[in-house]
Design brief:
The chain has 397 residues and is mostly helical. The chain has one domain. Helix content is 65%, strand content 0%. It is built from 17 helices and no strands.
Length: 397
Amino acid sequence: MRLITVVRPDFDIYDGLSEKMNVIFIVILFASSIFLLDRVFSISNVLTEQTLLRSSPIDALRGLLATAVVCHHFVVTYYWKLNGSWVRPESDILNNMGVVPVSLFFMITGFLFFGKVYRKNPDWGTIFRSRVQRIMPLYIFVVLIVFAISLVETKFVIESGGLVKEILKWGLFLGGAFNGFTDSVHMTAGAHWTLRYEWLFYISLPIIAAIFNRRLYGKYFVLSLGALGLAFPSVYFGFVFPKLALLFFIGFIPVLIRAHSPGLICKMKCSFSSVVVSIFLVLGMFFSQGYSVTQMLVVGVSFVMIALGNDVFGILRRNGLKALGEVSYSIYLTHGLVLYLLFSVFEMFSFKSNNFFHYIILLPVVLALVSGFSVITFSLIEKPFIFIQNRKVTSLD
């Protein structure tokens, strides 16, 4: 999911009742696919021992969020292949299947890493090293595949002039064309944009810790200030939107509740709280303006309760969903490659038919292929680096 301008296509996929029926059918297909994936993943050996023993509902939540983003970009791909424009779906629900999961991912990051620094003496070297080990190997792999496909598509005719600039843009998580091939950015479905915000948050952690813990952290505080200063022009040029920082800050709330009002935690786990979580998540799916402050706060209510242990009627206790959560980063970062290969390289569907219904029945197949591929990339790329040098970084991080 990436921030995109709302542009109505010059054709109508939906009309009247058919629009509602298509959306309902997609949601049913998505829910059915998740049900089946949960069953399959529950008997897999994907889960690490650490995740299996944890009771945090966030592990399973991640699996639901990553697959929802796949569903969102599956629909966006239809628009793109049909009229050449990468635009949001007309349906608010389908659009928010990208917006709400990304919002919750940012809240999860804020929750986990604020919890590592609040009222603690952080080992900054370990924290930053763990982030590099956790995020960069798979990102580098995906970018190399994007580069390779782009070279094939451009028949290996190297445009040396802008090559360095294009590589630099990908290194800064800006994406874009590679070797002049404009579709390169769509091979990740634009998902790399969120890594800009993730890294800016990690870089700001020493400053955040200094504010809340009322102490400085020497060179790490200075380096944090310097790095954010260098990143400031990205706000001016529209590469970073400061208001999204609110999503990370919302993630601080459960940490503060645990520290200062632990008596509230048990109230967050009851059935009534599960009803509240469900209502606010549903409400968040009907906003027409994604990433509005109101939407962030509405979704944030649900997140705070989940972070404090609410498992939404037991759904977020399921081992199959936890296993999906284990490979959620791979799902999130590689699904664009799978979509591109299926519909642009192998032409799995004929878009000349302009039959949206025939397209959406492929959703379960796409989710299965993305999930299967993600197990491979998690096992061969992510996992070895997570446990490199016997420095275990839990998958919840």
